[in-house]
Structure formats: structure tokens, C-alpha cells
Amino acid sequence: MTRREQIIQILTKEEKSAQQLANDFHVELFEILEDLKHIKYSIKPKKLVMKPAQCRKCRFKFKERSKVKTPSKCPRCRSEWITASLFRVE
Ligand SMILES: [Zn+2]
Q1: Average pLDDT, stretch 17-32?
Q2: For 72-88, what is each residue's pLDDT tens digit?
Q3: What is the rounded CA–CA span in Å between residue 11 and residue 65?
Q4: What pLDDT does residue 8 have?
């Protein structure tokens, strides 16, 4: 099984951030981000669902966008205390 297939299996069962996946597979974050981009288009009719990142200080919700990386700063309060975007497959 390829890593991408394994990621699909994992995300079918639970929500994970890209960083958690990178830790699980002992690879760099950018490799997982590449995988997720690819998975997004290859798993149809299933869907890769992203729960947007959120500022833990002011609860600002980052809009869902094509970018899969977690933003580093809140545009509203400038806090760097951001929960990661979580992914799952439905
Ligand atoms: Zn904020």
C-alpha cells in the first residue's frame, strides 16, 4: 500500500492534521501536503473534508481555502495560537 492509500484509510477513520500525519509517517510536512493535494483529486466520489484552522484566542475561523497548510498568524488578533486544520475522508 502506498503512503497515500494509507493516509486515505487513516482519514476515513479519524480526523488528523497534516502535521500529525507527518509525525505518524516520519516524513516532512511538505510531503504530506503534497499527498493531501493529490488525494483531494484522486478519491472522487469520496471527499477530502477540511475543518478549517481556528484562532484559539479570539475564535477567528480561517476560511476554507485551497491551501492545506495551517496559517501561522491570526489576521484579527495576531495571535500565533492556532489550531491546525483537520482533515478527514467522507
Ligand atoms: Zn485571533
Answers
A1: 95
A2: 899 999 999 999 889 99
A3: 19
A4: 97
Give the predicted TM-score (pTM) of the model: 0.82
Q: 16, 44 in Cβ contact below 8 A?
A: no
The answer to whether 30 touches 8, Cβ cutoff 8 Å, is: no
Determine what percent of the chain is predicted with pLDDT higher than 70: 93
Total residue count of the chain as it appears in this document: 90
Compute the distance from residue 82 Cα to the ligand 1 centre, in Å. Answer: 8
Question: For residue 86, what are the CA distances in angstroms to 1, 25, 41?
Answer: 23, 17, 17
Q: Give per-residue burial for 34-54: e unless 16+ CB within 10 Å, then b.
A: ebbeebbeebeeeebebeebb
DSSP 28-61: -HHHHHHHHHHHHHHSTTS-EEEEPPEETTT-PB
Give me ligand 1 centre to Cα 31, in Å: 28
